[in-house]
Amino acid sequence: MIMAVKDELHQAMRSIESVLERTSHLISQFTNYVGITMFSQYDRMYLDGTSHIIEQPEFRDLKKLYGILKCLEEKRDILEILSHDLESDRLVIHIGRENKHTNLNDCSVVTRGYKTRKGLSGRLGVIGPKRMAYEKVIPTIEVLADAVSDMLGDMEDEE
Fold this sequence. Notes:
The chain is of the alpha+beta class. It contains 6 helices and 5 strands, in the order ααββαααβββα. α1 (2-11) packs across α6 (134-158) and α2 (16-31) runs antiparallel to α6 (134-158). The chain is globular.
């Protein structure tokens, strides 16, 4: 998996933005949940796989679905979650009501930070149901965070 991820990201190596956009897509593709990435220098967030939310049985309740989709659309609450642990590159898991925002009380948010060799940082992660397949999600997030750190570090070396 590690080599496949690095190959995919290498193809997107035109800019930081393209690497992060591709990473959010890979997270969504590998986990079947919403993939999110954020880079602190630009306070820009990328997300992919929003349609996976409607595939989850717990979100068939339209009121819950509306709240989650609104939260994803506005991005402010997600950016706040990602920014909260920005200085740390450790894995953080918020399950259900551990999420500050009530629209995410039926979700789990798993994030991990990444850092470049020059110290620039960001976070990436996944948003899905509380019963998500953590045994699949956690290693995926770990591998992708390491790959993004390496890839962005290589981009810095080329500058």
